[in-house]
Design a protein that fits this description.
- The protein is an alpha+beta fold.
- The protein has two domains: 2-145 and 279-311, no CATH class; 188-271, no CATH class.
- The protein is built from eight helices and 18 strands.
- The protein has helices spanning 59-70, 77-93, 122-129, 158-162, 194-200, 241-248, 282-290, 295-302; strands spanning 2-5, 8-11, 15-17, 24-28, 39-45, 51-58, 105-106, 134-138, 141-142, 147-148, 188-193, 211-219, 225-232, 235-240, 257-263, 266-271, 280-281, 307-311.
- The strands form six sheets. A five-stranded antiparallel β-sheet has the order 3-4-18-8-9. The protein has a three-stranded mixed β-sheet with strand order 6-5-7.
- A hairpin with a 2-residue loop joins β1 and β2 (8-11).
Length: 313
């Protein structure tokens, strides 16, 4: 049963089960404020992505090396606190993901970027210390959590971002967001040649064909492209938008695309946001913090219905 402790919702004495391993977390109200000591194994990735060594770290010390890589360490403290809770929840929820390889998380973008800090920035240390052990839960389980740079006006669900078929829980279905409008990534345009577009569609038999038109076939309620429609030769085909974006990489900053216009020997895309658009919008968190919102309110906005809780064992 959810309780109110110092104005904060807590899932008192509930256990959260991480999805990858039989790992249980006992959650208590924050008035107890325990100091958690949980060790995780980090696969340190080299420049080519290969794991060069495995490092064991206390979760809280691990976060000191994650926060400055995933969010600017000079950003407002309440935004950094929100990021700390999200990064901690992600770490716990991913325990055992790479268990067959002898570690839990990687130090690169396959998990969260981690680099051992020479000396943690004061605000980073505060953010981790003042949220020690806090995670987000949903119906007695750790919330499978995500974050990105900028949503451009509305977050979306994992279903839209990666084609997941299992319905997303309410905290991850997307919310309207007016707080990231001042981000440098709020609006963008990008040119992609017809040749590169054809290559991104994933069919070798299409290479060398003529791309006669390219457009959005379907969007989700948040404005993210779900399907693209391409007229190639005499055929009209549909392609999953997330797969096209994965193939194009940085050429498509986001799938929140407002318009596609034919231009020269390719197409110009006009869109909003940077990243997959699921979960915490980091620029939105900064915008909320700049307006005086505390991190609890920031998390409540981006993960409605989730419960902020404290891990003790």
């Amino acid at each position: 049963m959810a309780t109110e402790v110092n104005g904060r919702p807590r899932e008192a004495f509930h256990r959260l089960l991480a999805p990858f391993v039989a790992f249980w977390c006992l959650l208590v109200p924050s008035t107890a404020r325990p100091t958690p000591h949980h060790t995780i194994r980090i696969g340190i990735a080299g420049t080519n992505g290969a794991i060069t060594k495995v490092k064991r770290l206390d979760v809280e010390k691990y976060l000191l090396g994650v926060l400055p890589q995933e969010m600017a360490p000079e950003w407002p403290i309440e935004a950094l606190k929100a990021q700390a809770v999200v990064a901690r929840t992600y770490a716990y929820s991913q325990l055992g993901r790479f268990g067959g390889q002898g570690f839990d998380l990687t130090s690169d973008t396959r998990s969260q970027v981690y680099k051992k800090p020479a000396a943690p920035a004061p605000l980073v240390r505060r953010a981790v210390t003042e949220t020690a052990g806090e995670v987000l839960g949903w119906r007695g389980k750790l919330l499978g959590i995500y974050y990105h740079a900028c949503c451009g006006g509305h977050t979306t669900s994992p279903n839209s971002a990666w084609g997941y078929t299992k319905p997303a829980p309410p905290p991850l279905r997307g919310v309207a967001d007016r707080y990231c409008r001042h981000s440098p990534y709020a609006h963008w345009s990008s040119y992609v040649s017809a040749k590169d577009l054809l290559a991104s569609l994933g069919h070798k038999r299409l290479l060398g064909a003529t791309l006669r038109s390219f457009s959005i076939a379907a969007k989700d309620r948040a404005g993210y492209a779900l399907w693209f429609k391409a007229r190639i030769g005499g055929r009209t085909l549909r392609f999953a938008a997330y797969r096209v974006r994965q193939a194009l990489g940085n050429a498509l900053p986001s799938l929140r695309i407002m318009k596609i216009r034919r231009s020269k020997a390719g197409y110009e895309f006009f869109g909003e946001g940077l990243g997959h658009g699921v979960g915490l919008c980091q620029w939105g968190a900064r915008g909320m913090a700049d307006r005086g919102y505390r991190y609890e309110a920031i998390l409540k906005h981006y993960f409605p219905g989730s419960v902020l809780s404290v891990v003790v064992n």
